[in-house]
Amino acid sequence: MDSEKTKSRIDILDVIRGFAIVSIMLLHNIEHFDVYFFPENLPTWIKSLDKIIWDSMFFMFAGKSYAIFALMFGVTFAIQLTNQQNKGKSFRARFAWRLFLLLGFGVINSAFFQGDILAIYAVVGILLIPLSMLNEKAILIIASFLMLLPFEWWNLVHAIQNPAQQINDPISWTYFGNMMQYIGNDSFYDTVVGNLTNGKIAVMLWNWENGRFFSILSLFLFGFILGKRNLFQWSDTSKQFWKKALVIAAIAFIPLFLVQQKLDTLIESDIIRRSVSTIEVAWTNFAFMIVLVSSLTLLFQKEALRKKLMYFSAFGRMSLSNYVVQSIVGATIYYGWGFGMYRYTGATYGVLIGLVSVLIMGKLCAKWAQHFKQGPLETLWHKATWI
């Protein structure tokens, strides 16, 4: 019975990771992998469809897929730490080395796609090592405090004291504005250099401006608690937990989302509205992310749906490999050194390209899983971790 529960727990984690990877792939494709270019020569009906698809995809996945990925990062650390502790071994130093290896994967991925998240996870993940030594209550308090985005509250206090102050565009926009100098041309070398210099500065600034460094660590810690409590191992306790989580998150999401849509009319001051929006969007995304994770976890226990959801499992077992491969493939399709499809595709064509990519990668993942337990980069990461 215990072995069956353990297997189920591992399967649902793979499914959730796989769902996150697939949604990230679809979202990146409509964004042209950070190239926000909208062709003007498309038919009117395509442009209308583009808007529907763009709004729908951003509603479902923007800010939520990365959050699921971050939550799973914390869960995985908890499982690895517990497994090694049960063997009487220390894992924290090994985890630090593992994060250094992840940073290497992130740098490689960043050469193709400046929006890489692996490098940020590797750096922020270091804080998991000391924080995981605290008791669960302290970890929960810290995670909740970080999700409040404390630095943005400091900005908000300043904004309230100076409501008429004029604000400039975020600094990250300046760097993002430079990206077409290298991504738009046909030089692969220039694109790699641009991604690793200007592109990484843009992404780091954007993550800071949007409170992502705080929310990522918060999600790591929440995931760590979920992993330590075995809440992805099906039981009466986990069943009740995920039902409550779904209800509470859904109730919280509705007013948060409605307020988000009305901020422009509710708050006149630009400087106040910017800080409130940063905080409000983070909380809205967090609530909807919990809705997605709890829904997947509960639906996975339904026999009729489990087999269908297992489609995502192969993606999840190879999440690192899939994340890097989709960056390479996406850059090849959309950037100037490749096929330059950003010039011709809107959200409709982008999501179709994404769906085709998902289907092809799904077939490849399933084939690979028939012969290997892990993806190629996962295998390399595992072996290098334990050298």
Structure description:
The model is unreliable at 1-9 (pLDDT under 50). The chain has helices at 2-30, 44-61, 65-86, 92-112, 118-125, 128-131, 136-147, 150-161, 171-177, 180-183, 188-209, 212-228, 236-266, 270-299, 303-309, 313-317, 319-334, 347-369, 376-385. The longest helix has 31 residues, at 236-266. The protein has one domain. Helix 1 packs antiparallel against helix 3, helix 3 (65-86) packs across helix 12 and helix 5 (118-125) packs across helix 12. It has 387 residues and is mainly alpha-helical. The chain is 77% helix and 0% strand. The radius of gyration is 21 Å and the shape is globular.
Key words describing this protein structure:
387 residues; mainly alpha; disordered N terminus
Distance linking N and C termini: 34 Å
* Largest sheet descriptor: none
Estimated helix fraction: over 70%
Structural class: mainly alpha
The arrangement of helices and strands along the chain is HHHHHHHHHHHHHHHHHHH
Number of DSSP strand runs: 0
Question: Secondary-structure blueprint of this entry?
Answer:
Elements: H1 2-30, H2 44-61, H3 65-86, H4 92-112, H5 118-125, H6 128-131, H7 136-147, H8 150-161, H9 171-177, H10 180-183, H11 188-209, H12 212-228, H13 236-266, H14 270-299, H15 303-309, H16 313-317, H17 319-334, H18 347-369, H19 376-385
Helix pairs in contact: 1-2, 1-3, 1-17, 1-18, 2-18, 3-12, 4-5, 4-11, 4-17, 4-19, 5-12, 7-12, 8-14, 9-11, 13-14
